[in-house]
Design a protein that fits this description.
- There is one protein chain.
- This protein is α/β, with parallel strands linked by helices and 272 residues long.
- The protein is built from eleven helices and nine strands.
Length: 272
Amino acid sequence: MNFWDNFEKDKHLIIAHRGARSIRAENTMSAFVQSLGKCDMVEFDVGFSRDGVAVIIHDDTLERTSDVRDHKEFKAPYNVVDYDYAQLLKLDFGSWFVKEDPFGTIKKDEGLKSELDKLDIQRILTLDELLAFLKKNKMIANIEIKDAKETRFDEIAAKEVLKIVEKHNMKDMVCISSFNHEYLKQIHDLAPDIEIAALQEDHHPANLVEYLKGLHVKSYNPDFDITDETLVKKLNNAGFFVNVYTVNKRSDIEKLFNWGVKSVFTDFPQEN
C-alpha cells in the first residue's frame, strides 16, 4: 500500500489547512479535532524548539499565534528556536484567535465564541502527539517541514520528522512536503517509499516536469496564484498529482477540480 491508496482513485480531496483554522486557532489540537469528518486529509507545519522537539507551528516566530508578549521571559523577536519545549508549553496558542477573529467567523456566528470560550488553553503540539491523535482517528496527513536553513536544525529536520513518522508506523498515512526541496531529496534517500510533495510559490522552476522527476515526487503543491489550467493538464499528462493551496471560495475549488487538480488546501473544510 502507498499513500494514494488511502483514497478512491478519482476522488477530489479536501485538505484542512492547518486544521479547521477558520473556526479554531491554527495548528492546535482543537483545530484538528474540528477537522475530523470534514476533510480527507489535514495539513500542518513542523518547526523545532531550541532543545530539538518537533513542534506544530507555521511561523518562525511566536508573536502572531500565541500570547508570548504577555510573558516576560520571552524577548523579541520571539523566535521559536530560541526557546526550549518546556518554555513553549507556558504559552497560550488559542486566545489570539478570539481576539483577532482572522476570518470573521466569530462575528458571523454568535455560538462560535461561546464554544471557543469553553475550550481549554491550547498548548503547543508536538509532532509526536499529533501523529498519535491522527493515527487513532485514522486521519491522513500532509506534513510540511518548515525551512530551517537559518538554524542548526537544517541538516537534521527531515531525518527527525521521518523518525517520528516511523515511530508511529504511519509511512503510508503521510505525505511530507516542503518549500525546501533539499529536504525532499533527503526523505527520498532515507525512505524512498514515503510520499513527498514539492511546495512552490511565486514562480515555477524552469523545466518543471524534469525538475519534479529529479526530485522523485509524484505531487506538486503550487500556490493558487500561480496555477492555471494549462499547468494542471501538463502535469497530469506527465503523471503528477497537483494539489493547490490555499483555496477558500467554493467556486474556485470547483474550477480547480474541473481542471484536474487532485486536492485543494482550504481554511474552511467544514463548508466543503
